Amino acid sequence: MPIIVVEVMPKAELLDPQGKAVAGALARRGSSFTNVRLGKRFELSFEGTADDAALVEARELAEQMLSNSVIEDVVSVHFAAGVSSGAVA
Amino acid sequence: MSRIGVITFPGSLDDRDAQRAVRIAGAEPVALWHGSHSLEGVDALVLPGGFSYGDYLRAGAIASLSPIMAEVVDAANGGMPVLGICNGFQMLAEARLLPGGLIRNDHGAFICRDQRLRVENVSTAWTSQFAANAEITIPLKNGEGGFIAPADELARIEGEGRVVFRYLEVNPNGSLNDIAGVTNERGNVVGLMPHPEHAVEAGFGPDTDDAMRSGTDGLTIFTSAIAALVAA
Fold first, then answer.
1. Active-site residue numbers of B?
2. pLDDT for B142-153, tens place per residue?
3. Given a cut of 90, is residue A84 above it in pLDDT?
4. DSSP H stretches of helix in A1-89
5. How do the domains of chain A map onto residue ranges?
6. Looking at the predicted structure, is the pLDDT value of residue B129 above 80?
7. Fewest C-beta atoms under 10 Å: which of A66, B36, B195, B206?
8. Residues paired with B7 in a beta bridge
9. Cβ atoms within 10 A of the Cβ of B230, count?
10. Is ipTM > 0.85 here?
11. A15–B174: do the CB atoms touch at under 8 Å?
12. Does A88 score more than 60 pLDDT?
């Protein structure tokens, strides 16, 4: 069954308090990573062919429902690794 | 008697408080259900606070897609007074009935306090009974109350006087321009993060200089809507 992955991040110019809290914990454990931004990953499964039409539909859903363009950006819509995609095939 | 609907969503917490506020203000509260497509002929609507759907996806996002929201959008576009409190404000922003968006508090923590506000627009359906620039105190309690909007939209709503409530003394959540509540172009839809329904009856409101828990500054929001309905 094909899976499309949608990744959404808080807008770069907005403060990301969750990422900041994680970064604070990293600093306390001595990590060399200094900045963390925390977003969301959705995995959308469907019956059918892994083709461009599915990607278009997922992108539309990502922009209209899975993200809010006032506060977030859709950074990626792609087929999960291991799934052959009509877009690349 | 005016009938004001209060919509209960899965995870609403303050629906009964909002119904009580409507009753104390002098209207008949009507309990509405998110899964229905009927507004049962009400004259105005309140979307109450809480954590609908656990704030999954985004605060207010899933509730904004509830069956009843189709009717809410139609009613709002038709001029019906609609008030969104806290999670209800987040729903109205998600439904694009109000400008901007609400994000996690800048300090990362949930905050609960009695909050001083200035009422900067007294021509909306929900604020007409306030004196211009009235200063009020009502409870605030949220984790995702940071109001944001793109710079051009922020300038536009400021320029059009659509900031209805502004935080005074403390900005509790990192909201841009200390914005606590906004309205739509028509002035019938208002959303705010603080909770007027928790300041409507002496003995159960914020402390005042006069007496503990005697604050009833939130009541005027509900009586304003009733006055607007009677005048209509």
1. 86, 195, 197
2. 999 999 999 999
3. no
4. 17-28, 52-61
5. 3-79
6. yes
7. B36
8. B32
9. 12
10. yes
11. yes
12. no
